[in-house]
Amino acid sequence: MSNNGTDLTTGFISSIVAILLFGSNFVPLKKYETGDGMFLQWVLCAAIWLVALVVNLILHCPKFWPFAMVGGCIWATGNIAVVPIIKTIGLGLGILIWGSFNALIGWASSRFGWFGMDAEEVSKPLLNYIGAGLSVVVNKTQDPDPEHSWVDKLSTVQNRLVGCSLAVISGILYGSTFVPIIYIKDHSKRNDSIYAGASQNDLDYVFAHFSGIFLASTVYFLAYCIAMKNNPKLYPKAVLPGFLSGILWAIATCCWFIANHSLSAVVSFPIITAGPGFIAAMWGVFMFKEIQGRQNYLLMILAFCIILAGALCTAFSKI
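Below the sequence we write its predicted structure tokens.
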């Protein structure tokens, strides 16, 4: 098989694994109280950093580029808003908004060369546009029962305004998380750049990226402890499930790095951002019995068809 064929196969397999793990990573936490999410995020990010340490050792400690940490900080910043979003507008609408902006920003920044990156070319642009568009319309899952928090003091209008605004911001931040890495890779080909000669292998930046995630989450957690007057809300029973959730997320993201390298972000983003919501819904149907009724099943079948059509359009746009 040619190198191009091998890259495509590797990229699509990595995308499938990423979709499965992203759609499943919160399953271990399903039955545990997580409160306002700040403690949980720190546990998740600690697990994420340990996975990055293992990957870094396996790769024999490639050069550490501090700028790659910025992407991790961006992701952690977007992630701290997830719990308030869920409590104000629900997980379904939250994922619809932040997932859509995540997909669009991640795809468009690579496709059109935003933020100083090189524009990515595909052999069939129209199919790529269609695939990206289809990936935006399927980011929807069931709403959980919200727990009491500061957002309960907001009016209905304030809830919608705060929740939607935070979801848009989170989506933009999520969609920008790979920008520093892609920027380094693009500028590594320029002799006059400080990044000249930097690795073209995305996995070589995992440790720096995940270190940024852990650093930012630690800073936010410390700030939270100060704001709570050294009385943060801790949930010991969520530690081990949260750690497992972080490991699953970290492995999924490593697969996304591989997909970015093999397919380019302009192809991997529409595929990987579209699928996890459907996988999460499958858990809701078969494991937790949250989604029932003929209408809901028909909607899920329709969502699956849209996801498959979008993935195929995106895939064929590369070939």
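Residues 55 and 107 are 26 Å apart (CA to CA).
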